[in-house]
Amino acid sequence: MRLEKLPVSRIRYAGIVDFDGLYRMMHQWFLDRSYYLEEQSWKYKIPTPLGKHMEIEWDAWKKVTEYALYRIHVYFYLMDVKEIEVVRDGKKEKRLKLKMNLEISSQVEMEYQNRVTTPLQKVLDDVLYKTLLRRDMDIFWTDHLWYIVFKLHTEIKKFLGMETTADPYRAVW
Amino acid sequence: MVPYIPHTIEAARYRVKHLDYFHMRNLYFMMHEWFIEEGWATRVDYDFGEKFYLHREHAKRGDEIWFWWRLTKGAPGQSGPNPFYEWHLDLDCHVVLLTEVEVVHEGEKFKANYGEPEIKVRAYILVDPKGTWQKKIILKDMYDVFTKRVWKAELQSQRIQLYREAYRLQEAIKTYMKLQLYLPEPEMAKWYPRKDFTDYDVKT
């Protein structure tokens, strides 16, 4: 299996957030794009007077062809989480006051089914990759996945109400 | 057979030592996060280069902690890491007189520590780490010409980049410990809690 890793995108946010809404929005975002999603870990750490710590990891993947697969890994680290009540449109709602570190890493995996086993197959796979598929890799798969991740990044920023939510690449892919 | 020892260029060497109330776990966590964010390590725990950890308890004079981190990173190249260079950062942390104390911050009691952490950092570059030039007869003779003449500017550039990165780590440690900084924007600017738990201000 070959891996082509893309740069990690990070969002840091300190403030009050509807974390339940963010969690559902991101989950739905992956389902809408036909990704298979697994929640690999959910860690809850003993609360301190500053609040509790939580660590969540998601692994999402999608088969693009018989040969290539997109994988997106989302890592949430929530620090100093405290539940508070806010009044919105005259109604009381629960929100979380926290510090959040969100990392989205992605990679394209080729020959993900591990069909290549013998030395001859490995040589042929190498030739296939370096001659025919290299161009697809450079200008199609990695590029495509990068813009997909960037769209998720923008959606999160929009949800959190950040100032820089404009997506200059909305017309791409 | 004599093992191959690659050519080493030291980029930075410093130590930070401070005696005060602080939070040991937060300091450890902050440095760990810094290394992950800068690409020196991954979030996979067993990949992290902590080669040694010692905790010696002493009822009267306080605990002693030693930990050694040995981290490696590919040197940046034009398209991906440059295999001719390898960046190394060795961090040795020695904490003495470590005792548990309770501090009050904004009316709430916290468990914190009192002690003297000393952090020593050495950053260096390994040139031709796998010996792809040095182990070959023809390339071996050309190695000096290339490293001292042809690639001299690139080698200097690598050294300066690593020097800056190592000092950014120092800046992060000093920000945590609330020591004097000389850059206008501190590293890890108020994101991770500092030694006195002051970090950010969220208006509720």
What can you tell me about this protein's structure?
The complex is a heterodimer of chains A (173) and B (204). With 173 residues, chain A is of the alpha+beta class. Helices cover 32% and strands 46% of the residues of chain A. Chain A has one domain (2-160). Chain A contains 2 helices and 6 strands; from the N terminus they run ββαββββα. In chain A, strands 1, 2, 3, 4, 5 and 6 form a 6-stranded antiparallel beta sheet that branches. Chain B is elongated and about 70 Å long. In chain B, helix 1 runs antiparallel to helix 3 (152-176). Residues 200-204 of chain B have low confidence and may be disordered. Chain B has one domain. Chain B has 3 helices and 6 strands, in the order E-E-H-E-E-E-E-H-H. Chain A binds chain B through residues 10, 12, 14-16, 48-50, 75, 80, 84, 97, 99, 101, and chain B through 33, 37, 43, 105, 108-110, 191, 193, 197, 199-200, 202, 204.
Essential attributes:
heterodimer; A: about 170 residues; alpha+beta; 2 helices; elongated; B: about 200 residues; 6 strands; about 25% helix
Quick gist of this model?
The complex is a heterodimer of chains A (173) and B (204). With 173 residues, chain A is of the alpha+beta class.
Describe the sheet with the most strands of chain B. Answer: 6 strands, antiparallel
| Rg calc of chain B | 20 Å
Number of helical segments with 4 or more residues of chain B: 3
Number of strands of chain A: 6
SSE series of chain B: EEHEEEEHH
Q: What's the average pLDDT of chain B?
A: 86
Strand content of chain B: 35-45%
Could you give the topology of this structure?
The complex is a heterodimer of chains A (173) and B (204).
Chain A (H helix, E strand, L loop, with lengths): L1 E4 L3 E9 L1 H14 L3 E13 L2 E13 L4 E21 L2 E20 L8 H42 L13
Antiparallel strand pairs in A: 1-6, 2-6, 3-4, 4-5, 5-6
Chain B lengths: L6 E11 L2 E3 L1 H14 L12 E7 L6 E15 L2 E26 L2 E20 L9 H14 L1 H25 L28
Antiparallel strand pairs in B: 1-6, 2-6, 3-4, 4-5, 5-6
